[in-house]
Design brief:
Length: about 190
């Protein structure tokens, strides 16, 4: 789940999705809960929280290929339909000074980048060989003041892409084993 003070009492609350009831639920710090949203499909990944100038959006994908952006009352800001079940959490990075990119993958190999309003970012989506279970991570690998997108497929491809969707030098790398977790990026030398 994701943690945020939804009821403005100075204590964190938790928001999460369910598989059995297809719900997004908030559990408040006092133990009470509220059904925020119900989908026709299962939620298998934790919601992500996007804060733009104090406006909080709960962003989550379901097994029907829907990515929902919800306000804290559960109203839909936008609904984006992808090519298959959303199999990663939604991750965020700044594309430029006015655009936040929301990145996610699907079981059919789609890697998507949409803006904070639900519009495709130019150059995306990209369709890969293998289901995406690895939530995209970001790092400026070449020190050009622009992050690269790092992810992998369950078929064993490690991917690094530029923000415009083009391949980064020397990638993809085919690794013998697939991955299901988000990449961690660190400078070890």
């Amino acid at each position: 789940g994701a943690v945020f003070d939804f009821n403005d009492n100075g204590k964190d609350d938790v928001v999460f999705g369910t598989e059995s009831e297809n719900k997004i639920i908030i559990v408040y710090d006092d133990g009470s809960s509220e059904d925020l949203f119900v989908s026709n499909y299962k939620f298998k990944n934790a919601p992500s929280l996007l804060n733009i100038n104090g406006d909080i959006a709960i962003v989550v994908g379901d097994d029907g290929g829907n990515v929902y952006s919800l306000d804290v009352q559960g109203n839909i800001n936008f609904n984006y339909l992808a090519d298959g079940a959303i199999t990663t959490a939604i991750s965020f990075t700044n594309i430029n000074s006015s655009t936040v990119g929301l990145f996610f993958g699907t079981e059919t190999g789609g890697l998507y980048a949409i803006d904070q309003y639900g519009n495709d970012i130019q150059g995306w989506p990209i369709f890969l060989n293998g289901s995406m279970n690895s939530t995209p991570s970001f790092s400026d690998l070449n020190n050009d003041n622009s992050v690269e997108v790092v992810t992998s497929t369950v078929s064993g491809n490690i991917l690094v892409l530029n923000l415009d969707g083009s391949d980064y030098n020397h990638f993809p790398i085919n690794y013998l084993f697939g991955t299901n977790s988000a990449p961690i990026i660190a400078d070890i030398d």
